[in-house]
Amino acid sequence: MADSTISDADKIRQKRLAKLGGLPTNSNATPSQPTPAAEPVAPQPPQESQKSPPSTEANGNPFAQLGMKEQEPERKPTQIKIRPRPVSPAQKRPGDASRPRSKTRETESFEVWQDRNLRSIFRVTLNPGETRDSHGHSLMFLSSTMDDLGDGPLLLNTEILEGAITEAASHAPGNKPFEYLLTCFKRVSRGLRSGRFDGELERKRETLREARRLCMSYCIFAVTMPDLFGENVPASNPLVDHLLQDPECDTGICTDFLDEANARIDEDDTIKDALVRAAEELSMRLAGVDLLGDYRQYVGGMRNLIRYKKFADAITQSPMWAPPGIEAVDIETKTLLGPFFRLSPMQLDVARSYFSAPKTRDRGYIANAQNACRITLRTHQDELHRITDQIVRSGAGPKERMLDWFALCVNKNHKKRAMRVDYKIVSSDGFMVNVTNALDQLCEPFMDAQFGKIEKIDIDYLRRNPRVDISEETKINADQKTADDFFAVKAEGTSNFISEVFFLTVAAHHYGTEAAQERHSTLRKTVKRMEQDLEGFENERQQYANDPRYLARFEEHVKRYKTNIDDNWSIIHATYGVLSDDLSQARSMQFMRYVIVWLLRLASRQDLPAKEQLQLPLPSEQPDVFRTLPEYFLEDIVDNFKFIVGNIPHIITPQQSDEIVQICVTFLRNSEYVKNPGVKSGLVTILYYGVQAYHNHARGLLGDLLIGSPFAHKHLLHALMKFYIEAESTGTHTQFYDKFNIRFEIFRVIKCIWTNTMYRENLAKEATINTEFFVQFVNMIVNDVTFVLDESLSSFAKIHELTNELKSSTFAGLDEEQKKEQMELLESEKGKAKSYMQLTRESMETLILFTETLANAFTMPEVVTRLAAMLDYNLDIMVGDKRTNLRIENAAEYKFDPRALLQDIIKVFLNLRDKPNFISAIVHDGRSYKQHNFANATDLMTTLQKLSMAPDEIAAWKSLAQRVAHAAAELAQEEEDLGEPPDEFLDPLMSELMTDPVILPSSRTTMDRSTIKQHLLSDPTDPFNRVPLRIEEVVADTEMRGRIEEWKAERLVARRGEKEAVAAAAKAAAESGAMDTSQ
Q: Residue ranges under compositional bias (Low complexity) (predicted)?
């Protein structure tokens, strides 16, 4: 009879168990009555205390009856008698006749079967004297359960099973009720899965199902209400502990367990809460682990959870999933997926482990360590892809929340591309690289080689409440107001998944992979500067040698500084190892193909690539949807390909090379489509890297394509010439030096493609059809050669001076700061000399190619004067009176070869030697032309063996020198005849007699047409008031021209008269002298 009062603990326990649909039996309650078929048994083990009548002659397996139907009461069971097969005489063994036959095992009742199996599953006993089962497993004695059974049969059944489970779990080994219940769940699952049942099949299956259901329920209680099983239960989430173990081991979360949880999650909210909490704690624990730790078990645990769509849906609704107010630096530790994406070799401790003592390691060691990094990270990134892909495939809700998390990662990290990045407030590079890789892999299903799904990338995505925040991003070719007005007009409809992941991936590349590449480059510069500083510190050591206190502090400071240098080198090696992964970059390249083709479709308004071939130039009216795109769409392409072409070009396929050339040529040819000169210069850099030799490719990755591509034949040369001109003004504070870098790269590309005669024909067309454009291009080449050679020689003089100072006693008397300044100045001058000299050589070699092909074009009035002056000036430097200044130490260090440079100058002279106006321009150069320079050059050509000039070239040079001397004599005679012209007839800039005077419209100044033309080639303003000016706006000063012609005619007539008078006087004097002689 039940007690009238129940303890508070029992009340609480009953309320918690009420969720299961039934209450546990009270310890003093009347025991449940057994079924009529069962007989009371003594409290011994059931196998021995009760016998059932046999139904067959064969021995029965305890689980052998699980496959049979329940017997009908009115129908007698069929008796099957199995007789043993007679044994042949040959098979009889001694003693067989006398061996007694074994008795047939009696069939056990359902109640006995149920008791035996439940005891085996839960490893419990109702016999206080029984401590182990037949297999040696320890058994728990259930005293309360035995009391609940009272005087009835001591048989476990499903009606009292809840109380038995509670009692057993409360006494679980090590106070680990969840572990105990999990092992029970696994045993009952194995029984259901592999058992064969005899008789009453459904009742037995139902018993095991109920046991498994209760195991699952109490497992969840062990997670959500651990105090149900006592006060000493560990506070940590036991579900997490077992998720971290191998699912196949006895204590690991197995598939059966998760299947059961998945089946019941809709009807039991506690399962959902338990799983979400487990996923959260799994994430929080992983936040303290790196690639050197046991991270794989955490990844495996999470992967096992999200394999179930319902679990993925629940987990992505966690408050930890994508907290809206979280800071960028906390995303990788305080969001649910953050710690999984945080794992990377680029973490400092991991980098230190892979690249310990980096400055002492050889290249082979570094390469092997980087390869190990790549293999480890590649495996991990594949796991991250499985996780994200499974979440995306789990339904609309999880897919949207997965995209929200990716959007959080990119939108919170805009400051990663700031001018000066504070790495303490942004996510790590390793984290963002993993995010980029995961998005790249999500894009793979729609990135087919034929671009069949490119039309599904919605051009109106950014006008339809996009996840990607571009409000503060610089646009390709639109100011902020224009972009705001465009995006203010919202597009209808909803964005598809392909568009969402495409735009997120472009942004992720900008803030992830490309940001890591930028930091890698910055770190290398930082380390180089730190190493120079360390040398300076070491030089100061002697100052502290006599003071142990300061010396100790100095040593500690130097040690920390060396550690920082080593750490930076470790991160540099690790970062390069990650970024140079062939598989990841090949995947990135595939994505960039789609970005390129999509941009070209957008800008050209052509159906590329399936139905049309790209046609240039692009439409004059730029599409707003293209103009207002974030600038990083092009920037990502440039940065990505620059890194790959410069470091791992072998991964680029021929198809990708075609698209690289197309986008580079398109936006250099139509440079007005892109506002940022830095992006356009990046396109040139891609081509430049593409023609650099690597391995067995003499023309690099793109050289052969540029030489053979019809698209490049038609547009490349014009595109390069156009940007060569534009580079004069890039709008940056370093534009003066930027233009030389850009032009150097352009020259290298031109030299590579010049072997194809089609490019020579195209240059001739430019000179004929776009004369002004061509003249401007050549004029800038001439200006550059003049400037850079002059700067190079000035730097050489400065280097010579500084080198002597460093060797003098005066330098020894300077303090350390002054010495450092002098040494830095010397290094700066060396760098300038080297850079300028390289550009000088490239410019001269390009001039040789051009003048050899187009002598007529380079002797046009607009070009020839500047070109001849440049050549005269450089010839004077090389062979004139001051050529001894060219003798410098270590000339090869600065790429300075005087003989080769002189040879280049002579070749340009010879290419134009047959043009009369070129000879005239030479002698009209009043600043640098000296006749003896030609004679000096002839002497050097014949005496210097290293000046490899052919005999016919030397003969041609001598002939040119004679013709120049003759022209100079004629010019001198003409100038003598004209005398000193009036100042009003002189050009105000050149102080030379004008031949075609024009009036400038704004300043009303009269000057020669050729002078203002040359000025406008480099500066499109009036030289006297800086008002914008075009050559078409000048007005011919016919009145001034007439006066000049009249003055010249008068002077020539007067001079002719003077000459005739002098000649007549001389003749008369001669005749008079002859007469006197005769007398």
A: 35-55
Mapped onto helix, strand or coil, the DSSP state of residue 197 is strand
How remote is the C-alpha of 1013 from its chain's centroid? 46
* 26, pLDDT greater than 70: no
Distances (CA, A) of 840 to 67, 882, 981: 93, 19, 38
pLDDT tens digit sequence for 52-80: 333 433 344 333 333 333 444 444 443 43
Give 476 or 895, the one with higher predicted confidence: 476
Q: Is 681:640 a contact under the CB 8 Å cutoff? A: no
State the average pLDDT over residues 351-376.
94
Residue 84 CA to residue 411 CA, distance in Å, equals 80
- Closest of 972, 971, 969, 977 to residue 1059, by C-alpha: 977
- CA distances 1029 to 777, 1022, 1026, Å, are 18, 6, 8
Q: Which residue has the higher pLDDT, 237 or 466?
A: 466
* 490, 464 Cβ separation under 8 angstroms: yes
pLDDT of residue 120: 93
CA angle, residues 1068, 1073, 1078, in degrees to nearest 5: 130
Compute the average pLDDT of residues 816-824: 80
Rounded distance, CA 417 to CA 419, Å? 7
Is 1072 exposed, middle or buried, given 0-12, 13-18 or 19+ CB atoms closer than 10 A? exposed
170: closest CA among 252, 227, 251, 250? 227
Task: Label residue 362 left, alpha or beta by phi (over 0 means left) and psi (-120 to 50 means alpha).
Answer: beta
**SS3 of residue 553 by DSSP:** helix
Q: How far apart are CA 575 and CA 584, in angstroms?
A: 13
pTM attached to this predicted model: 0.81
User: 897: exposed, middle or buried (C-beta count within 10 Å: 0-12, 13-18, 19+)?
Assistant: middle
Q: How far apart are CA 971 and CA 924, in angstroms?
A: 8
Is residue 363 pLDDT above 50, yes or no? yes
C-alpha torsion angle, residues 809, 812, 815, 821 (rounded to 10): 90
CA 904, 909, 910, 912 torsion-angle sign: positive
Q: Which residue matches tokens 């006066």?
A: 1043
Please tell me whether the peptide bond between 609 and the residue prior to it is cis, using omega within 30 degrees of 0: yes
Within a 10 A sphere around the Cβ of 617, how many other Cβ atoms? 13
Amino acid 297 reads: Q
1007-1026 exposure pattern, b = at least 16 Cβ within 10 A, e = fewer: bbbbbbbbbbbeeeebbeee
Residues in contact with 1062: Cβ distance below 8 Å, sequence separation at least 6, in sequence order = none
Q: Which has the closest alpha carbon to 519: 564, 470, 576? A: 576
| Per-residue pLDDT band at 801 (split at 50, 70, 90) | confident
In DSSP terms, 65 is beta-bridged to 197
Of the two residues 441 and 983, the one the predictor is more confident about is 441
Residue 726, CB-side half-sphere exposure with 13 Å CA sphere: 22
Contacts of 662 (CB under 8 A, 6+ apart): 596, 600, 614, 711
Chain centre distance of CA 752: 29
Q: What are the Cα distances from residue 852, in Å, to 713, 760, 803, 1016?
A: 20, 10, 41, 27
| Residues 114 and 158 sit within 8 Å (Cβ to Cβ) | yes
How sure is the predictor about 105, in pLDDT bands with cuts at 50, 70 and 90? low
Is 437's pLDDT higher than 90? Answer: yes
pLDDT tens per residue across span 768-796:
899 888 888 888 888 888 888 888 878 88
CB 429 within 8 A of CB 515: yes
Buried b (16+ CB within 10 A) or exposed e, 589-601: bbbbbbbbbbbbb
Phi/psi class of residue 21: alpha, beta or left (left: φ > 0; alpha: ψ in -120 to 50)? left
